[in-house]
Design a protein that fits this description.
13-stranded mixed beta sheet; Aminopeptidase; 13 strands; GNAT family N-acetyltransferase; single chain; BioF2-like_GNAT_dom; alpha+beta
Length: about 375
């Protein structure tokens, strides 16, 4: 359907669709996801359709700016109403803990005015004057188009998480990671583990990845996430979503699972989503009984090697929380991002200011809670 009260601007036409039932728009959406200037597997149909159908909510809408002459999509992202921190509502790009990346899908030929039309569309579709795009990489191609002066863009709380580059810079990062004490210790642990049986590091893709994903979910559920109730298998909805998503991505070679095993038993696994020229480390799990062999570090360093061997990949995003103690020493690059807040109307500007303070308050409370938990422990 066309966006309400928002007409076409020249050849650019804004549309709003239900992402669970895209109908004849699916092919254009898929084409943009596959060729986007900044790859984002979480905003393509293979991920978003099963995620919203199984996990919800039902009020998320896919906003897209299209070229009405060709039907080609210029920019797209899912939006819904969400509180920024503790109370301020915004029309928010639907980046969640299952997919912490808010980069809109952008056609490389999109004209400069695409960004402003897109922001207007988001406010119209959701019915809120403030637009928020969480986890937006600061150097992505979409950022300059979205940071139009009329919308008073503001980057809230920039942060950085682990990632790595490809090519020569990636090789340099690997050399730094696999040096000194770590260069001796990790192989020594593998030798010790080999006393229990054959040790293997391997990768699976395609239908093999679909089958291996069942083993991954069992491994995840056997650890602390299972005890905490946050493993995929703890919730039938998350189990169904994950199975459908992995199967869909496997059909287009969009998933790789790296496995560290001994005597045929997987003791660490890393699920990597492949999109365009980037890899995204989606989920990791390891057997806590083997923790003294550093299985998480072993499989993470192996994943870095595999990524560097794939000459199509220009980099990878760990999707990990900033400061992650295991992955940051191994993946030496950094992905810098922020929550982009945009508003054009006076009401939206007031919400923008309040929203920035709201995010700050929530962040400070979370830090305080973590310190208290550490103190109690």
């Amino acid at each position: 359907m066309s966006a309400p009260d928002l007409p076409a601007v020249g050849n650019l036409e804004p549309i709003v669709i239900d992402p669970v039932h895209p109908g004849d728009r699916l092919s254009a959406w898929q084409a943009l996801a596959e060729s986007a200037a900044d790859p984002n597997p979480f905003f393509g149909p293979d991920f978003l359709m099963p995620f919203l159908e199984d996990m919800g909510p039902a009020n998320v809408r896919l906003c897209a700016v299209t070229d009405k002459r060709t039907g080609r999509w210029m920019m797209a992202a899912p939006f819904g109403p969400r509180r920024l921190g503790l109370g301020i509502p915004a029309a928010t790009a639907w980046a969640t803990e299952y997919g912490p990346l808010g980069t809109p899908l952008l056609d490389r030929t999109a004209p400069a005015e695409t960004g402003e039309i897109f922001l207007k569309l988001a406010t119209q579709a959701v019915g809120l004057p403030l637009v928020a795009i969480p986890y937006l990489p600061l150097d992505c191609a979409a950022a300059p188009l979205l940071k139009t002066a009329a919308w008073h863009p503001r980057d809230a709380h920039p942060e950085a998480r682990a990632g790595h580059d490809g090519g020569a810079e990636g090789e340099r990062q690997f050399t730094k990671a696999f040096s000194g004490k770590r260069r001796k210790e990790l192989p020594r642990l593998v030798r010790r583990l080999s006393e229990q049986g054959e040790v293997r590091l391997e990768s699976v893709r395609g239908e093999d990845a679909v089958r291996m994903f069942e083993t991954f979910m069992e491994l995840e559920a056997s650890g602390w996430k299972g005890k905490k109730g946050t493993a995929l298998l703890n919730d039938p909805a998350s189990t169904q979503f994950a199975r459908r998503m992995i199967a869909a991505r496997a059909r287009s070679d969009g998933v790789r699972i790296d496995v560290f095993s001994v005597s045929g038993k997987a003791i660490a696994m890393l699920v990597i989503l492949l999109e365009g020229n980037h890899a995204f480390s989606w989920k990791i799990a390891f057997d806590e009984d083997y923790a003294h062999f550093s299985p998480g570090s072993q499989v993470t360093l192996y994943a870095l090697e595999k990524n560097l061997q794939d000459k199509q990949l220009k980099g990878a995003d760990s999707l990990a929380v900033p400061g992650h103690r295991m992955i940051e020493p191994l993946w030496r690059g950094r992905v810098r991002y922020a929550t982009l807040l945009c508003a054009a109307s006076p009401a939206g500007r007031l919400l923008q200011l309040a929203g920035h303070l709201d995010l700050s308050l929530e962040r400070d409370l979370r830090r305080l809670a973590r310190r208290l938990l550490r103190h109690q422990g």
